[in-house]
Each structure stands twice: as structure tokens, then as C-alpha cells.
Amino acid sequence: MSTLIEPILPNTIAADFLPLQGTDYVEFYVGNAKQAAHFYKTAFGFQSLAYAGPETGIKDKVSYVICQNKLTFVLTTPLRGDNEIADHIYKHGDGVKVLALKVDDATNAWQETTKRGAKSYLAPTTLKDADGEVVLSGIHTYGETVHVFVERNNYKGFFMPGFRKWESNYNPTSTGLLYVDHCVGNVGWYQMNPWVKFYEEVMGFKNILSFDDNDISTEYSALMSKVMSNGNGFVKFPINEPAEGKKKSQVEEYLDFYNGEGVQHVAIATADIVSTVTELQKRGIEFLNIPTSYYETVLERVGKIDEDIAPLQKLGILIDRDEEGYLLQIFSKPLQDRPTLFFEIIQRKGAKSFGKGNFKALFEALEREQDARGNL
Fold it and tell me: Where in the chain is the domain with CATH 3.10.180.10?
């Protein structure tokens, strides 16, 4: 059963050896960054921010940076084959490579994590231009995913050195996406606890919530999950692993098609989920279908909410409550042809949990999609 771990006390935060200010950006390796940028602008309401490529002195790749409020995505494509980025795309398809974390001191972040056992991805590196400097460093985590620490206190530019401002005549309106709420990783059989230990020992995170296969299961499949959070709660990484079931779980399907461990979904916060999801659906984003029976009893479980139930049911938005409030959440279908990466849209009305009461409805919806693909 799920267990809520003791809250993180203020003196623990003061002693945090890896203080994080939140997610700086998420970088995706994709097959065609120009087209992907257009898709995310059109469908999700991102704006053009920055560009790097041959015109800026980068000869082997291009990167488009798009943003919306405090949410920044970097979309990167190799210009030739036979390199690490091309190999990543061939193996995994489009997917998340970098979960970049904002810090005050990227050198210290690298030193503190590598001395605790992290494998270095990028030694501290200073990038400079006329707008100042950005210091980057990085470490490896599960699969081929990496964390890059970004120190930008002394930079006044729009993204970082090596990029130029990307101005476009095509600027779709925002859909109300605000920032990264959490990022979920899928790891292999019996690998959840080793990665929990990694985040505890190497990055100073705490296991704030745990779910076993009794919490997250249906008639056919199951998984286990532990939620890792840094000291101030600005960065949260749930970690999933498969559990035994009659048929293949969604985590197993992901691992098969992604060819290994990686980021399963990025959860993005909004202040008005009905407005955001209505606009996303208008722009062609498809979400999991939730049966009407879910809404017949949901208010008996979660109690009074501020929203009318009818628009939530029409859109397929799920509701759950914990001791501190409630949340509204919805999950997209995969954003690429492989059934791997998807997005969650979440609005928190006080709740700090992750929708345990919705697991059964969510997983049954996922299984229906798996079955349609022939992968259940």
C-alpha cells in the first residue's frame, strides 16, 4: 500500500548539499527539430526563444528553444549520422535526453554529486558572450538520460551563449502552460530501488511517496512507483518499474519501444485546466478516454470541488484529493508514433500528491490504448 513519508523539515532544507531552484529546461532529441518546434508552437502554444546551428557556429546539430511562461523546451537534431544524438534517436525515437536543473553553483553541484558516486556527463564548463556567462555541468541518471546543472545568475541574455534570438512571424497564443510540475522515469525490472538510492545518496532527495502493485494495478497489469523530491520540493521525479501481472504493463511496453529506461512523461502545471485542455484539444492534442462511469461516483470519493463536473467529464479530466486539497489531471496519448513519451496536464488546488485515486481509471484507459496497438 502507499505510504506517506515524513515531511521535509526546514532545517533539512538548510542543510541541502544540492539546492535546486527548479527545472531550467527539458531537452528532447528529435528526428526533425524544425518541424517539432512548429508542432509544439502550434499545438501547445509555445513561443520562439532561441536557435543554435551552423549560423551560430554549431556545425553538427541544430537546436530550437521554445518557451511558455516558466516552461522551456529545447529541441535538438543532428545534422549528420554517426554521432551520439543520431544514435539516440535511432535507438529510442524522439525522447527526453536532458532534464536541466537550475542551480546557483553548477561547479559545486557537479562536485557534490560526483563525489557521492554520480557518473560525470559534463565537467563544469563556462560559456560566455556579450550578455555574460552561463556555467553548465552534468551527471548521468537512468538509461541515457542526464541531468545538466545550469548556473545563469551572471547572464542577462535570452537563453545562453552559443544561441541567437529566434524571432518568428508565427506566434500562436498561449494555452496556459506554466512550468514543469514533475517528470516520471520508467526503469527496468527491480531497478526502482537502486535508482531511489541514487537520488537519495547522490542528490540528497527524499522518498516522499511510495506505491506498490496493490495501489497501481488492474485486472491485467501492474507497476510500482516511488516519488523522489529534492529538499525544497521544487523538483520531483517519480520512478516507475514493472510489476508482475497477467499481461504486459504500460511500463513494459515503454521499455520495449524505447529500447531501455527513460522519461515516460512530463507533467506540466496550469492554473486553469479546463481552459488549457479545451484549447489543446482544439489544436489536435489527443488525451486518454475516461469512461463516463468514473464521473458517477468521483464526487463521493473526493468531496466538494470548485469546478462544475460537466466540463471535467466532457474533457476527461480526473480528480483526486489528499490531506491538503485536491488536484485535477489529464494524460495525453503518446506524442510520437512509438508508444513512449506523453504529457500530463495538472492543476493543483492544494494537493501535493499524484492522483492515487485515479490510478485504476488511468491504467484501464492506458490498457485500452495498448490493446488497440496489440501490445497488451
Answer: 11-165, 177-373
| Grid coordinates given for 206 | 527524499
Residue 62 is which amino acid? V
Is residue 280 a contact partner of residue 317, using CB atoms and an 8 Å limit?
no
- For domain 177-373, the CATH superfamily is 2,3-Dihydroxybiphenyl 1,2-Dioxygenase, domain 1 (3.10.180.10)
Find the helix or strand (DSSP H, E) in which 100 lies.
Answer: strand 95-102
DSSP 55: G
How many CA atoms does the CB half-sphere of 140 hold within 13 Å? 9
The residue to which cell 512507483 is assigned: 225
Kindly tell me the burial class for residue 312, based on how many C-beta atoms sit within 10 Å of its own C-beta (0-12, 13-18, 19 or more): buried
> What letter does residue 332 receive in the DSSP assignment?
B
Burial of 364 from C-beta contacts in 10 A (0-12 / 13-18 / 19+): middle
- Residue 279 C-alpha cell reads as 484549447
Look-up of cell digits 510520437:
336
* 30 grid coordinates: 528529435
Note down pLDDT in tens along the chain; length 376 residues. 344 444 444 444 457 899 999 999 999 999 999 999 999 999 999 999 999 999 999 999 999 999 999 999 999 999 999 999 999 999 999 999 999 999 999 999 999 999 999 999 999 999 999 999 999 999 999 999 999 999 999 999 989 999 999 999 999 999 999 999 999 999 999 999 999 999 999 999 999 988 765 665 555 556 788 999 999 999 999 999 988 776 677 889 999 999 999 999 999 999 999 999 999 999 999 999 888 888 988 998 899 999 999 999 999 999 999 899 999 999 999 999 999 999 999 999 999 887 666 666 666 666 677 777 787 6
Architecture of domain 11-165: Roll (3.10)
